């Protein structure tokens, strides 16, 4: 309950309520874009500073390896289930979104864990970046196989190299990676200099951004409600299944609680920015309202309001 009284979470709830009653409250797109870029830059710097302090070791490599494994397991599981309930191309698209990650959910979880005294390692930011692409690759391979089976050739633009280029050169990804490298190179000196920007302002900027996200969720939930009950159940229950698998993996690898929670969050989240943008041209036959509406209208608020504190509590109980 205490986690729901966090100002940032309350602003998210307020945004959902304002959108639900059709208020004309809105954050100008340019400001919303700035807030998104700020959070990514600050997150990258924080991850880089932490990575510079901890350095690279086998534990870090295991954590990144676990994240990469989840990035392949989740979309394959999702496709195997969803193909029985929607068209196979729609199943591949939805599986790609759920196999990838939500940067905003990751940022919120990082802030939550830091406030709870469970600050995660900076390498988890690296894990988040690397988890973005495997699900897209899996979905594109599945889509190309389906097209080949139907006698429809994929266009040259759907080659894996092109998809990877689009994913890693996306502006948000580039900013996150660049900020992380800068944080790593500048170390403690850079951390002290950037503290007023990437530290002191972070919580307020996150609250403002989550207000905008709440408004977006309210608008997209109306679209998500049109999905079948099976898909709505998937959007709500799949995060729990994915988080449970991630916790099992973290337990086997002996990951610290903070890192384990973030692995659970990453595995349970769904992309509604980068992956939908890639899918629009990679799998144009899929219904955007389906994969975008489910990830943003159902899974995102579930993780923000219930998932993050739940995953933290369970990980603490299991890992101590």
UniProtKB/TrEMBL annotation:
It comes from the Bacteria. The keyword Transmembrane helix applies. Keywords: Membrane, Transmembrane, Transmembrane helix. InterPro entries: Sbt_1. This is Na+-dependent bicarbonate transporter superfamily protein. It holds the Pfam family Sbt_1. It comes from Tepidimonas fonticaldi. The chain crosses the membrane at residues 6-25, 37-54, 60-82, 89-113, 125-146, 230-254, 260-283, 290-311.
């Amino acid at each position: 309950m205490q986690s729901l009284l966090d100002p940032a979470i309350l602003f998210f709830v307020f945004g959902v309520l304002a959108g639900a009653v059709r208020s004309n409250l809105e954050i100008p797109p340019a400001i919303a874009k700035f807030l998104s870029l700020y959070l990514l830059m600050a997150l990258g710097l924080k991850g880089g500073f932490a990575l510079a302090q901890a350095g690279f070791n086998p534990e870090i490599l295991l954590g990144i390896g676990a994240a990469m494994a989840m990035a392949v397991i989740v979309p394959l599981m999702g496709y195997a289930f969803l193909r029985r309930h929607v068209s196979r191309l729609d199943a591949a698209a939805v599986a790609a979104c759920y196999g990838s990650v939500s940067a905003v959910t990751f940022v919120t979880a990082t802030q939550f864990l830091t406030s709870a005294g469970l600050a995660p390692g900076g390498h988890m930011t690296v894990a988040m970046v690397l988890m973005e692409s495997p699900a897209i690759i899996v979905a594109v391979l599945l889509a190309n196989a389906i097209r080949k089976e139907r006698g429809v050739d994929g266009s040259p633009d759907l080659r894996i190299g092109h998809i990877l280029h689009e994913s890693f050169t996306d502006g948000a990804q580039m900013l996150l990676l660049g900020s992380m490298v800068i944080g790593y190179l500048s170390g403690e000196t850079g951390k002290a200099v950037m503290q007023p920007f990437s530290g002191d302002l972070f919580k307020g900027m996150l609250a403002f951004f989550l207000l905008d996200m709440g408004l977006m969720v309210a608008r997209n939930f109306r679209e998500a409600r049109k999905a079948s009950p099976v898909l709505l159940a998937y959007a709500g229950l799949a995060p729990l299944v994915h988080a449970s698998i991630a916790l099992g993996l973290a337990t086997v690898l002996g990951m610290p609680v903070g890192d384990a929670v973030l692995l659970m969050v990453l595995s349970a989240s769904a992309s509604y920015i980068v992956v939908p943008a890639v899918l629009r041209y990679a799998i144009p036959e899929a219904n955007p309202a389906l994969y975008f509406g489910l990830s943003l209208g159902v899974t995102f608020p579930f993780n923000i309001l219930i998932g993050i504190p739940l995953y933290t509590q369970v990980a603490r109980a299991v890992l101590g």
